[in-house]
Amino acid sequence: MSPAEQPRDKGVARFRTRLFTAMMVIVATLTGLGFYLAQRKVTADAERNLQQTFQAELSSLHKLEELRHAALADRCNALAAKSRIHAAIEDNAIDLLYPSAKDELRDLMEGEEPPPEQAAQSLHARFYRFLDSKGAVIKPLNPYDVGELDAKTEAQLDLGKLPDTQQIGYMQENTQAVGGSIDEVIAVPIFSTDTGDVISALVIGFKPLELEDKYTGMKSGIWANGQLYLPALPRSTQASLNDKLAGELANSDQGENYFHVYVGGAPQLLFYKRLNPASLFPPAYEICVYPLSYSLAQLHRLRWQIGGAGALLLLGGFVASHLVALRLSVPVKKLVLDSEENRAQRKRAEAALASTAEELERSTRYSADASHQLKSPVTVLRVGLESLLAREGFKPEIYDELSALLHQTHRLTGVIDDLLLLSRLDAGHLQIASTPVNLSQLVNEWLDDLGALPDSPDVKIEKEFPHGLFLAGEKPYTSLIVQNLLENARKYNRPGGRIRVSAHGNGSEVILTVENTGRTIPPGENIFERFHHSSTPLAVSGHGIGLNLARELARLHGGDLRLVRSENDWTEFEVRFSAVDSVNAVA
Amino acid sequence: MRTRGLLWLNAVFPILPVALLASATLEGRVELPKSHSAPVQAKRYQIVTKGGVLSTQPPLAVVYLDGAFPQPASLPTKQVAQKDLTFLPSLLPVRVGTKVEFPNLDDTYHNIFSYSPAKRFDLGRYRPDERPIPTQVFDKPGLVILRCDIHEHMRGLILVLNTPHFVMTDTTGHFRLGGLPAGRYTLKAWIDSRTTREKPVELKSGETLHVDFP
Question: How would CATH label the architecture of A213-291?
Fold first, then answer.
């Protein structure tokens, strides 16, 4: 791999990484969402299933209880039909009530307590009591026969009034003692056979029926009188559950509901249902605590499944993203390539620019140094030649020779001055003080000088410009431009040719045109280039700076110098200057 | 026999006017509760309970003269029979110390008992041919509610009184008590198990006093 390809591939790799990351984020989000939904579903299912189990178990329990209640109601109706019971209640013979009922209710109290599974059928009571017309308990003379109760428990049986219908209540015995028990209490009204009035009530206490736990690991109990009775749980757990239940039941007016609890650190679902709705007895609730271990295991399994699916998805995503990245990276690669080339080109151009600037600077510095180094020897040379010319005693040819040499030193000085000016121009050190310059006068002076030159060929000069045409500029430089153009027009002319000089003001500009006959400039030749030398074999003396300098100066004056045409023995230069309005207006 | 009796009466005649002159008579009317049920056929009446209150149906009252009267050596035996699963009579006023027989005239067992404070007794089950006929002596004044342990709807009342002077009103509430000793007494009207009205009376020999219980 070539070094140029490395960054390109790096870019592609980065793109691929990004694509893969995006896919991973999507897959992770989907997996997370799956987790969340599955968890919710499993939890909801578990709750629903347990709720149904709870309902089913409770309803079977209620069926048993209904049987028992019906049996008891029958018993009470039979009891109510007994003359002796009526006699005892109605004929003010309360002392005879319990003895009278003893025979009737003998089977309730006799025998051993049956095992729980036969509890519903056996009708074995823990105790019974009668209530008087005010709903208060009629104290038995011999509590042993009717099931002994402590005073506190017995007081709980007081309903305050006689019930019209069967009432179900739950109360705890020996709440203080460890292993206190709970009783289900059924109060059955006793109606007078004569009048149909309720004359008393029989209150019978049973061991409550217990919910059968088949496979759920459920623990059941009863919450009555603000106290939870759930012997399957340790007392400390019961106490904490009791607090929670009390809060829940206080805030809820629903007969049944469920909530989550932690028992022994394990999550459980606690269901409760009012056992005795609309009863005169205090509210009591059936409490069932179901462990959520089954649903948790299910959740665990599901988590693995979803996690596996997510991983597969991620793997697939990885492969897919790899393929997609490969396909997508082709245009991206191309894009990277193109931009690389663009960058290289720009760098090359920048390097070229830098070297050009360097060269320019170097040449500028060279011009300045060269001018200064050249000027002093030329001056020495000229002074030497002049002193030689002033001496007497040489042959006449030598004087001619010395005179020619002196002329050459003057030319050399002119070239050096031009170079100095040029270097100052290049360095940007040249600044012009703009003053009105009389172009007409300037041109005339130079034309006069031109005619006075010794080697001037036979050319005809045509002038076409008004008097007093002023431009804005500095006279020496303007003069230099005019001189350059006129000298060139003369220098490159042919014998018997002509020079035409015209100028006119154009509002904001003053335009000077210099035209001449003679040899034309070949097209494509850059005559404004510095140190330019004509490609034509017929050499004419010149140092190749003049036009360049003239143009730079014209531009410095806010104008320009250009070659208008050069063909058919006719060459035309045009230079533009800024006009001086006020002066031109006067003129 | 009839003639002889008359003769005997004639023989004691001189005393009779004295006795007649010495005795006072009470008559009047007791305002009886309105009867809500249809009139019972054949002048039969029964005991009903309403709000724990027992009374006869149709309503009848027992009017008696309360006071201290000498206890006779013996008192005639009375009867409350069980006939057609009712007590007959349903309401029996008796003087303290009276022995009451409870003959069973039905073809079934009866078990007459009472838990009333005035008399607690239980005759046990017995058949119509039970001999001797079960009896009880009522030696404490008060209302005795008779029940049958087998037929719980059966009710009978025995009103045990301290006095020999008592009479049941007719269904209109009218009563008449004759042969009363002169003196100040309290006349009482038993209307139901919870209601007994009373009025002070001053009886004068040979006079008939009219007393109405409103």
Answer: 2-Layer Sandwich (3.30)
